[in-house]
Amino acid sequence: METLEQIKLRIESALPLTKLDILPNECPAGERSLVVDASRGLDVAKFLRDDAQLKLDYCSNVTGIDWPEAKIKTKVKKKVVVEGVEKEVEETIETLRSGHLEVVYHLYSMELKHGPIVLRMRTANRTDQTHLPSLTPVWRGAEFQEREIYDLYGVIFDGHPDLRRILMWDEFVGFPMRRDYVAPDDFEYEPTPHDEVLVEAKKHYPVEVKAEVKPEVKA
Amino acid sequence: MPPKSFEVKPKLDESGSSIGELLEISMGPHHPSTHGVFRMDVVLDGEKVVKLKPVCGYLHRNHEKIGENISYLASMPYTDRLDYFCSMTNNWAYALTIEKLAGLAVPERAEYIRVIMAELTRLQNHTSLIGFFVHDMGALGTPLMYAFREREKILDLFEEVSGARMMCNYMRFGGVRVDVNDEWLARTKQLVANYGRFLDEFETFLNENEILLARTQGVSPLTKEQAINASLTGPLLRAAGVNYDVRKVDKYGIYSRFDFKVPLGEHGDLYDRYMMRVLEMRESIKILNQALRDIPGGPVMDPKAKLRGFRPKPGEVYGRIESPKGELGFYIISDGGPNPYRYRVRPPSFINITILEDMCLGHRVADVIVILGSVDIVLGEVDR
Questions:
Q1: ipTM of this complex prediction, to 2 decimal places
Q2: Phi, psi (degrees; rounded to nearest 5) at B310
Q3: Is A152's Cβ below 8 Å from some Cβ in B?
Q4: Considering only CB atoms, which chain A residues are within 8 Å of B229?
Q5: Which residue of A has its CA nearest to B347?
Q6: pLDDT of B26-52, one tens digit each?
Q7: A106: which chain B residues are within 8 Å (Cβ-Cβ)?
Q8: What is the pLDDT of residue A219?
Q9: d(C-alpha B237, C-alpha B280), whole Å
Q10: CA distances from B121 to A13, A121, B91, B150 (A)
């Protein structure tokens, strides 16, 4: 199979206005991945499937990743001249990573038996701009997996034929796989007159819950 | 809202006027034929299926979130609970992924033991699947008991070596937990030698059975293109005639050393899916015979592998194996900490039911049960 750089060049020449990035991977057997701009995702996916040299007809794995806003510390070695002697000093650089959700597709070719090509798309942020194009029209196998990502991460896939919750129940609020998700103490909470429970419940339910007062039974 | 057990809806023609009635029924979640807690919303026109929506999640415990909050090693027993029929292959898939992530080597003997365990798992999974499959068709009891008799013999072997019948928790990063002894190997050889005779018996009963032929041939055929596009894997994919077996494609472990074939179907119908399982078991017996013949001595754990306080370098990896149900993959992102940053399971049975609706459309409601049986789902894996 071609290298990822060649594939990147071919995609960029075949589809104008498309800009791809290659994400490095430090792990020994690691596959690097192609980061695609969300607006061009569908075109790139169609290209990868239909191209005669790639024929990535099999979308094996689709998954979401949550990257909350974080400060990332990277250590950089720097040469500094101290009192006329050159020394190597480690310096820590802090960069701010903006929060986003990421969807990863692992693509293989069943016909040519090669792969994987890892395709990634990122949302703009984690709150209101969480739309990504659905690749279910290209690979039907992504249907349930994209539904699962919608269910657990809250990525909204435009063009998905049937975007509903799949593992959690329909009335569920929140996205449990996000890293800042706090599970309520009791998913099936009902007001009870016990003080401890009411205090606990205040953390999760902003609306004040009034305890039912049972009429005292006169002896 | 709790599901209604049934509902009658008007059947409309193109102009919108009523020309009859459609019946919407909820099959499951508590029904023996759904192989667990699984529900299908089926809309029927007479006996014909016109719409089917699978509903899952009743066993959901967010396996992936648990995996992100515990150490790498602590996830190993949890993987047993994914597909609780095949805990050995689940262990292997996870161990293989972490070995790929951290660059660990596996000793020769451990590789052989892994192959033996995986193929025994395939034997018992396919055997009991065929039992369930004919059970779903109405052959109540007897074939399933025959299958379970054989399965129990294999589970006894698992119990002897790992301490548990089903939740084996046997493999580790860089090898397996305990070595097997010669007596165990001799007993396994004995079992494998007798297994062919059991299969002969099973096949004599079933292969040309009139009811099985009538219920399976030509039902729910799948084309190659459909199967590939829907990411089907395992026997289901090969029944449609696509030659794709991760054991052959990736040659993970030491599978390149064994001589075995990948059986392929022609029509992708239920009969082909049944035959795929039988033929795969024959191939598994071949692999087992070779592995039991060639197994070398030596250690079963990489001495460099560190289990406690295991912290792989940052990076990400996708590892996959051919589990009895299809391609089982793990996708791990490490940030250098003691827990994985992202822990994802690619469950074959969950993805194989993506086109359950297409498989069932136009068939009768009684076929839905058999079609679902042929997909071979385990709800521990579907719902995670």
A1: 0.87
A2: -75, 120
A3: yes
A4: 57, 139-141
A5: A61
A6: 887 877 777 778 888 889 888 889 889
A7: 318, 329, 331, 346
A8: 60
A9: 13
A10: 48, 37, 12, 12
